[in-house]
Design a protein that fits this description.
Layout lengths: L3 H21 L3 H26 L3 H31 L13
Helix pairs in contact: 1-2, 2-3
Length: 100
């Protein structure tokens, strides 16, 4: 049986990769994927805690997170495609129309 701290370390590593990708990359698609990595890191830790505590609430919460991530992916990709059609770029530095 794999100890709980291994899952937590895996979750922390995946979360840090997501944070690093979000903060350092300027491509909006890479930033979008980084957010998905962070959500999946949280899912790993929730499933690990749920398994070790013998409680299904963590797994139920994971299903809700996956549902929200799927909705976010659909809406986010639609926005990215609309921006790409208008600006012909996916770099966030070149998208400055929302600035006040």
């Amino acid at each position: 049986m794999v100890p709980l701290n291994w899952y937590l370390m895996l979750s922390a590593v995946v979360f840090m990769i997501g944070v690093f990708g979000f903060l350092t990359r300027r491509n909006i698609i890479i930033m979008f994927i980084s957010v998905e990595l962070m959500l999946n890191a949280v899912n790993i830790s929730l499933v690990a805690f749920s398994h070790y505590l013998q409680d299904l609430r963590g797994q139920i919460l994971v299903v809700f997170i996956i549902t929200v991530a799927a909705a976010e992916a659909a809406i986010g990709l639609a926005i990215i495609i609309a921006l790409f059609r208008n600006k012909d770029t996916v770099h966030v530095d070149e998208m400055n129309e929302m600035k006040g």
